[in-house]
TrEMBL record:
GO terms for cellular component: membrane; TRC complex. Residues 3-63 form the SGTA homodimerisation domain. Pfam families: SGTA_dimer (PF16546), TPR_1 (PF00515). The gene is sgt2. This is SGT2 family TPR repeat protein. Keywords: Repeat, TPR repeat. It comes from Schizosaccharomyces japonicus (strain yFS275 / FY16936) (Fission yeast). Residues 198-226 are annotated as: Disordered. PROSITE patterns: TPR, TPR_REGION.
Amino acid sequence: MSNNNKFALSIIDFLQVSAANEHLAKNKQECLEVAAQCLADAFDLDKKDAPSGAGAKLKTAFEEFQAREAALTEAKKKEAEELKVKGNEAVANHEYETAIDYYTQALNIIPTSPVFLSNRASAYSHLGQHEKAIEDAEKAAQIEPTHVRAYSRLGYAKYSLGRLEEAIEAYKKGLSLDPNNAVLQKSLSLAEKKLEAKEESSSSAASTTTQDRAAPSGLPNLGGLGSGGMPDLASLMNNPAVMNMAQNMMQSGALNGLLNNPNIANMARNFQNGQMPNLQDLMNNPQLQQMARSFMGGMGGNSENSNNNSGNH
């Protein structure tokens, strides 16, 4: 007879002995008898072949196995705890790689320990390995959502990577579990201040970029110039304000003085020959700057006031 059949007969004996218990309800006795018969049919056995006492021996063997497993588990737990203590000592001595090795050994024994995971996350962050720290901290939080240190480690790693919004979220989660945690309170405050400074810096940079697009020395913004940096002459000629300013210039004699300027005359000859003028030279020409101010004055504009207002928020 095979070992499987012997094992099955031992179980059949256990079921039959259990069914004979007079303190058991009638319907449960019947269920056990049916189970014994089904098992015998499945293995092509006769219930009568089940050796008496085999079921009791099977139960005793199982209880002894459980006892050994419990003793082994306690020993393993003690070993894992000792490894954790060594890891903590290594952290205190700034030996973070050694600490990681100890925590990893402890996790090999108890893979679901949120304490070991969050401790290793801290060691990873000390080495600048923040992505690994995030992985451990998130796993610790998933295993035990109320483990406050997991959120502290998670927040620090994300803060170190510049992921400030996520760091703040992690710190707030930790504080929701432990509102009086001074470390989390300070960490949250630092993260919020850094995020605020970052947003202010971005806003200031955007404002500066907008101002830099304006032409220097009060010249009008040339952002709307056409292809090649030249204006759309047809649009300019059809603009009443431009035509009015041109008439004012001719009447004031400013245009005559401008045309007598050798640089302007040379620029005009180049333009007639198909060469584009250098806009930077034009904007740095004192006479053109004066003409631009006249233009702006004719339109009631004030470039300095415009620049000042752009800085207000």
